[in-house]
Amino acid sequence: MKRFTVIFTSCFLILVNSLVAQTQTSTTKSGLPSPKDYDRWSAGLFLGDNFFFSDILKDSKNNNAFKSLPFSPAVGLQLTYQVSHSVGLRASGTFSKFQAGPSKERLEYTSKVYINPEVDYESPMAEAALEGVYTFGNISHLKRNQKFHFFVSLGVGMFSFDGEMKSTKDQSFDTNGDGTADVTIANGDKLLETGKVTEMMVPMGLGFKYQLGKIDLGLSYDYRHTFTDKVDGINKPETEYDHYAFARLSVNYTFGKKKAMEWVNPMEVVYNDIADLKEKVDILSGDKDKDGVSDMFDKDNSTAEGVKVYGDGTSVDTDGDGVADNADGDPFSLKGAKVDANGVEIDTDGDGVADSRDLEPNTEKGKMVNFQGMTIKTGNDGAMYLPSVFFGTNVSSVNPAQRDRILVVARTMKANPDLKIMITGHADNTASEQYNEKLAMKRAEAVKNHLIKVYGIDGSRISTESKGETDPDANDANRAMNRRVDFSVVQ
Predict the structure, then answer these.
(1) Which of 285, 367, 388, 453 is 20 to 30 Å from the Cα of 399, by its Cα?
(2) Could you count the other beta carbons within 10 Å of the beta carbon of residue 9?
């Protein structure tokens, strides 16, 4: 008795300590998921067979051999709260009955008379138990998801019984040795009654369960250690306590819409974190398109090699028209201008001036226009004038900002192959007259060479002249307007 008490107390303290430790682990900031992420309550129904181990089940010739174990159905309900992934608290109630017999065990019939009748014993029983359940399956390091669990249970409980023993046949006995039967027991006579008794017991068990979604099926063997020898009505000091056990099949349902805590492997969180970290490291260190931006931050992993990209890995689009510079036929189109698939601004009327700069978007086909898309009209001298190109102070090279004006001239000449033009150079009066004469001519020649080299215009169709500073269009306050070349169309 003392040995069992010590063992039971030790096991129970270990279980309580495990409950407290795992609860603390689940609620501290340890990187593990919160208990709120899981469903923790479940309820179930179980059915089984009740095995009753008592004095009257022992054969008188072999006290260790069970004579008869009739089927005794047991039914019960259970409610479980999952404290952590591996530990739960289970409250249960069971209804069944104790049955035993027939037996030839000696039965104390009166205080002085001993007889050996064959008997049957039967008692309704009910129990209530509170147990800690420890699950082994969900701490497996071999599988990330496991639907099969092995568990053990230990706790405390109470059980009640109200039994009676009856003779199984008519029997007569000579109790005083005078050769005459003086005691007769008829079939069905009551020999003993226990009365209604409630006793303490220790429930312990082991089993396994299998998950089917929110439902799990279990099979277990649940042993009940009692502290009385009176369950079968025979109280014999030289015998052990009476005990009983169940073989049970259970069906359990977990409430809620989240994952059931019991069926989540706590190591899965670690596995997932390691896998995610490895994936991020691979992405961070990788650059599939070799554009200098790691795959983790690269929004376009298919950038062609050598293409300039922004910090997010997308191709540079200088004019913001939606066409990357490497595929943009005009990487300097005006902001907001409509462009075609090649990034070139749309020219609806085909006059050589993009719609964004065209002040006359419906020019009649074949008409010559200036850089603003306006139809060129004939002057008093019979010539038609194209847009001017302006230069910086003492500069004779073509400014990139002025090239769209030269483009208008080139398109006009291509559209009119018989057209010839005169390019007239001008200068302001900030230098000597001779110097400005030469500077104005250099400007005219620079524009002519641009038309020839860039647009392939025949040089024989282009003439140049210089007026230096002799033909200003603006006063000294606006002398920048005098640093230009003019185009005159000669018909």
Answers:
(1) 367
(2) 10
Around Cβ 73, how many Cβ atoms within 10 Å?
11
The residues with which 487 forms a beta bridge, in sequence order, are 386, 423
Residue type, 268: E
DSSP code at position 369: B
Torsion of CA 390, 350, 453, 325, to 10 degrees: 90
Q: Could you say which residues of the chain have pLDDT below 70?
A: 1-33, 56-69, 101-117, 137-145, 173-177, 181-183, 235-239, 266, 268-269, 281-334, 336, 341-343, 350-352, 355, 358-359, 364, 366-385, 491
Phi, psi of 8 (to 5 degrees): -60, -45
Interatomic CA distance for residues 439 and 428, integer angstroms:
10
Type of residue found at 324: A
Helix (H, G, I), strand (E, B) or coil at 9: helix
CA max distance for the chain: 170
SS3 101: coil
**CA pair distance 295, 309, nearest whole angstrom:** 13
Residue-wise over 330-350: b if at least 16 C-beta within 10 A, else e?
bbebbeebebeeebbbebebe
Nearest 5 degrees, angle CA 13-CA 16-CA 22? 135
Hey, what are 452's tokens?
Answer: 């020839």
Instruction: Give the closest residue to 225 by CA, choosing from 5, 442, 479.
Output: 5
Please give the sequence-ordered ranges of beta strands (E in DSSP) within 194-306, or none if there are none.
197-212, 215-226, 243-254, 259-260
Instruction: Report cis status (omega within 30 of 0) of the bond before 35.
Output: no
Q: How far apart are CA 252 and CA 260, in angstroms?
A: 12
Q: What is the pLDDT of residues 433-455, one digit of tens each?
A: 899 999 999 999 999 999 999 99
**Helix ranges (DSSP H) in 321-432:** 403-415
Contacts of residue 278, defined as CB under 8 A and 6 or more positions apart, other chains included, come to: none
Beta strand 420-425 with 462-466 is parallel
DSSP letter, residue 147: -
The model's pLDDT over 288-333, given as tens digits with 9 standing for 90+, comes to: 655 556 665 565 665 666 666 665 656 565 666 666 656 656 666 6
CB 43 within 8 A of CB 78: yes
> Phi first, then psi: what are they for 389, rounded to 5°?
-120, 130
